[in-house]
Design goal:
By secondary structure, the protein is of the alpha+beta class. Helices cover 23% and strands 28% of the residues.
């Protein structure tokens, strides 16, 4: 099976209306865009002169992996959210992936990264940001949909879901404003919402419940829900 994709991060500073934001939120995520293969980075500029950092992931052949069962996933958070990573003296001595592995609340997200075959691709990134759903975030998904997502034949869709939670650059919560958009495709964006104080509250309608866990090559923001590309919604 061969897969190809590109993942993009961008910010929009123009004053779009609420209706425009809603239309962008409903935009679909192409099933043909997947994260796999060797990576290159390039910079482009949109019509308004805004710089978008684009990660291009070239096509590669992928060896299928076996199906895992829902029962193999942890769907509870063993640690209170406020205590996540508190047992680590210096989080910046670890990479983003190593930090995610150290949190029992993120064990399902880590397992799905591995199941999607994205570990090698992540190792090629100099910087990254995880919007990491907790185990209990995955527990909110219907069990039949989660089961389908884990099937070998649906690995490309699983990859699309996982990559929707990863930026190929380091982005602090303070950089995310209400007029920021995270670009998925030319037609699809994840909206970012903030409160009256400018504090980020959600990405793609998933609430941020812990932010800015710093690693040696990026950071982790923890989500209470799973970002769902249309390919997953349609399963």
């Amino acid at each position: 099976m061969a897969m190809s994709t590109f993942v993009m991060y961008g910010c929009a500073s123009s004053g779009e209306t609420t209706d425009a934001t809603a239309m962008e939120e409903e935009a679909t995520y192409s099933e043909t865009e997947r994260m796999a293969g060797t990576t290159t980075e390039e910079t482009t500029t949109d019509e308004e002169g805004q710089v978008l950092d684009v990660l291009v992931v070239e096509e590669k052949a992928v060896v299928p992996v076996g199906t895992i069962a829902v029962t193999a996933l942890a769907l509870e958070n063993p640690v209170p959210i406020d205590d996540m990573f508190d047992d680590i003296d210096d989080t910046e001595q670890y990479t983003v992936m190593e930090l995610a592995r150290k949190s029992p609340n993120l064990s399902t997200f880590v397992k799905l990264i591995e199941q999607a075959g994205l570990e090698n691709d992540l190792e090629r990134l100099d910087k990254m940001t995880f919007f990491a759903p907790t185990n209990e975030a995955f527990a909110k998904l219907p069990k039949d949909k989660l089961s389908k997502l884990l099937l070998t034949d649906n690995r490309a869709i699983l990859s699309a879901m996982v990559q929707a939670h990863i930026l190929p650059s380091e982005v602090a919560s303070g950089q995310l404003q209400s007029n920021t958009r995270i670009r998925m495709t030319d037609q699809s964006y994840l909206p970012v919402n903030t409160d009256n104080n400018g504090t980020i509250t959600s990405v793609g309608n998933a609430e941020l419940i812990k932010t800015d866990v710093e690693a040696s090559n990026g950071r982790i923001h923890v989500l209470d829900s799973v970002i769902m590309p249309s390919a997953v919604v349609d399963l």
